[in-house]
Write a structure and sequence with these properties.
Blueprint lengths: L35 E2 L8 E9 L3 E7 L5 E7 L4 H13 L9 E6 L6 E5 L7 H6 L9 H20 L2 E2 L8 E4 L2 E4 L6 E2 L18 H4 L7 H16 L8 H20 L6 H7 L8 H9 L9 H16 L8 H10 L5 H16 L7 H22 L1
Antiparallel strand pairs: 1-2, 2-3, 3-4, 4-6, 5-6, 7-10, 8-9
Helix pairs in contact: 3-5, 3-11, 3-12, 5-11, 10-11, 11-12
Length: 388
């Protein structure tokens, strides 16, 4: 007689993840030592934590003070200190305005003598990186976009009252964290009483208002247009005014041409100037020869007048009213609404909110637009109740 022995089940095998090698076995790599920034006047020392961003005019670092406070330090590149100083003075004039990045200090550096601005550290990536470039993230609702627009207007209204025009409102210069909007990078801002008609003031082409592109007098109205374009882009998930790579390249060339024109004291709108720019066979000033050597394809790119006309054609196409007064930019919003959970009713409220901001001839001011906000908020509440 055989006896059956019941075997005990084997315990489950646990697979442990590989352990990190001991510190002695980790291969060390040489890294750039952290910089220490000391104001020329002495006092606090700011230690670099990381490099956040590098632009054509400055480098932005995350820094820590001896007390442990973390800030953003914008350090001007050589020969750009005047621009950084101008931005610091603009931030000083903007102190106390809601939703504008806070200024903590500004000073010359002890080592390089370059100018630096100490500001609040942004709590999150910019709006473009967070909601447009990253397709995996949840998109903003109509209510959130209108709330962002409201906060943008709450900042622009007092800025404009103090005579400050931002001139570069776009997704890359906004942050939106836990329901709070922050406007930053006032490096291109100007005092309205110091602006010269016909002068080129930078900005980003695809967010500039039609009157600026036409060479008309600059004003605070361009900020309202730029905010409307930005809010529309946040909803449809793509730039409202799309530009081809050649057009973008042409814009880069134009930006350089404007800088050279300032140095040479020649207006960029001058016909002879344009002809000489794009006709290398003509006798050219030394700086222009140097420019053409650096940008050999400049003569094959569309001249500035052509590029601006292309942009104006885009605007005219979008702003032309259909027989029922329904411009194509509104159609874009409603087309996207069909694929989102916001619903057509909410999309109509968004278009009504944006409409007075887009008008070319009678664009609404930031102060007047704020007065209309409660109406849109009430409509959104009604829309939400109807959907449920």
């Amino acid at each position: 007689m055989t006896t059956c022995v019941r075997k005990k089940p084997l315990p489950p095998v646990s697979v442990s993840p590989p352990k990190d090698p001991p510190p002695s076995r980790i291969k060390k790599t040489s890294a750039r030592p952290s910089a220490i920034f000391i104001p020329e006047r002495g006092g606090k020392k700011y230690r670099e934590i990381r490099r956040i961003q590098e632009g054509s005019f400055a480098v932005v670092f995350e820094v820590k003070s001896p007390g442990g406070t973390q800030s953003a330090l914008k350090v001007a590149k050589p020969e750009k200190s005047k621009l950084t100083l101008a931005e610091a003075r603009t931030l000083e004039a903007a102190q106390g305005i809601p939703h504008v990045i806070g200024l903590r200090d500004h000073f010359k550096l002890q080592s390089s003598k370059e100018y630096a601005i100490l500001m609040d550290l942004l709590p999150c990536p910019d709006v473009h990186a967070r909601y447009i470039a990253d397709d995996s993230r949840a998109k903003l609702s109509v209510a959130e976009i209108i709330d962002m627009g409201k906060q943008g207007l709450e900042a622009l209204s007092p800025l404009h009252e103090r005579g400050i025009v931002h001139f570069d409102i776009k997704p890359e210069n906004l942050a939106y964290h836990e329901g709070r909007l922050i406007i930053f990078d006032l490096g291109g801002s100007k005092k309205s009483d110091a602006m010269i008609p016909g002068e080129h003031y930078g900005g980003t082409t695809f967010y500039l208002s039609p009157e600026i592109l036409r060479g008309e007098d600059p004003s605070a109205a361009t900020d309202i247009w730029s905010l409307a374009v930005t809010l529309t882009e946040l909803y449809i998930g793509a730039p409202l005014f799309r530009g081809s790579e050649p057009t973008r390249s042409a814009q880069k060339v134009i930006d350089v041409l404007h800088q050279i024109s300032k140095i040479m004291g020649v207006s960029i709108s001058n016909t002879q100037w344009l002809a000489r720019t794009y006709a290398p066979e003509l006798p050219l000033p030394p700086k222009m020869k140097q420019f053409l050597e650096q940008y050999p394809n400049a003569s094959s790119l569309p001249p500035p007048s052509t590029m601006i006309q292309q942009r104006m054609d885009q605007i005219d196409t979008l702003m032309e009213g259909y027989p029922k007064g329904f411009p194509p930019w509104k159609a874009l919003i409603h087309e996207v609404a069909a694929t989102k959970n916001d619903g057509m009713f909410a999309a109509r409220i968004l278009t009504a909110f944006l409409d007075p901001m887009f008008r070319v001839n009678d664009r609404i001011s930031a102060e007047d637009a704020l007065g209309l906000i409660p109406r849109y908020e009430e409509r959104l509440k009604l829309a939400k109740r109807l959907e449920h």
